[in-house]
Write a structure and sequence with these properties.
It contains 11 helices and 12 strands. By secondary structure, it is α/β, with parallel strands linked by helices. The strands form 2 sheets. Strands 1-4-5-8-9-10-11-12 form an 8-stranded parallel β-barrel, surrounded by 9 helices. Strands 6-7 form a two-stranded antiparallel ribbon. The chain starts with 13 loop residues before the first helix and ends with a helix.
């Protein structure tokens, strides 16, 4: 053995490993996703996502206070409207007195320094569960992008620092940027779901958000999991149209995509560790098959190592505690 080549010298103790560690995860990298519902004093656990809750606005404020105390920079809000408010055009998504609009107003009033992001999509607000308008079974692109831009505008007016379009309609980033700028909201940030794949890992989220499609699937607008060059094109187009942050979703099954995009991107890259990733770790840890803390820390380190600067994860609060320890 060549005695001059011993990489293990740099692994001999925890302090040595800390000293030479190449990738670090910080609470500063995290965004906490949350589900908002109507009512008062509502805190109902999502069946397929233990530890994740439907929260009425008053309970949301309590959670946001904890998020702020933990030093997490911000939260991503999803609205879960009552079924009777859903219609073919998702009109409750862009009502000025809509659920997310009211939640944003209250949250910004109580926590002015906390970054508030709002998911912008129609799927949770339409009676058919698709992310855009439907005509004869076909998802319309341009008409849907107009409503997506209208929704983003209403969220920004309500106090969103970041609007996060997740619909995957072509041209919607440009439509949102133009709409925001024309209405004096040029400082509102756009975090685009640029490479959002048609993934099997969204199942628990669809239960939480009540957004399962009533017919068909979303493969005509979400990306084919087999494609990678397409993700680069999507990211480049979104940056050209005015996206400030671009996102890859899901995270763990698409680390190669995060790596490719982050190596080329001129804007920060976010990765969404989605509901299925969360629920798999949670379920396995509850059965004693894996150590939850170790698995989560390893997973987010891999996401960060691949190049994501921002990690959206349901484990954000727990991670902030673990990272401090």
């Amino acid at each position: 053995m060549d005695l001059f080549k011993r990489p293990r010298r740099l692994r001999t103790s925890e302090n040595m490993r800390r000293l030479v560690r190449e990738t670090r995860v910080s609470k500063d990298d995290l965004i906490y996703p949350m589900f908002v519902v109507e009512g008062l004093n509502v805190r109902e656990e999502v069946n397929s996502m233990p530890g994740v809750y439907h929260l009425s606005i008053d309970c949301l404020l309590e959670e946001l206070e904890e998020v702020q105390k933990l030093g997490i920079p911000g939260a991503l809000l999803f609205g879960v409207p009552e079924p009777e408010l859903k219609d073919a055009t998702g009109s409750s998504a862009y009502r000025e007195d809509g659920l997310i609009q009211r939640a944003l107003c209250e949250a910004k009033r109580h926590f002015p320094d906390l970054l508030l992001a709002a998911d912008v999509c129609l799927c949770g607000y339409t009676d058919h569960g698709h992310c855009g308008l439907v005509e004869n079974g076909r998802i319309l692109n341009d008409a849907s992008a107009e409503l997506i831009a209208r929704t983003a505008l209403s969220y920004a007016r309500a106090g969103a620092d970041i609007v996060a379009p997740s619909d995957m309609m072509d041209g919607r980033i440009g439509a949102i940027r133009e709409t925001l700028d024309l209405n004096g909201l040029e400082e509102t940030c756009i975090m685009s779901y640029s490479a959002k794949y048609a993934s099997a890992f969204y199942g628990p989220f669809r239960e939480a958000a009540g957004s399962k499609p009533a017919f068909g699937d979303r493969r005509t607008y979400q990306m084919d999991p087999a494609n990678s060059l397409e993700a680069l094109r999507e990211a480049e187009l979104d940056i050209e149209e005015g996206a400030d942050i671009i996102m890859v979703k899901p995270a763990l099954a698409y680390l190669d995509i995060i790596k490719e995009i982050s190596s080329r991107s001129t804007v920060p890259v976010a990765a969404y560790s989605v509901s299925g990733e969360y629920s798999m770790i949670k379920a396995a840890s509850q059965r004693g098959w894996i150590d939850e803390r170790s698995a989560v820390l390893e997973s987010v380190t891999a996401i960060r190592r691949a190049g994501a600067k921002i990690i959206i994860t349901y484990y954000a609060k727990q991670l902030a505690v673990w990272l401090k320890e």
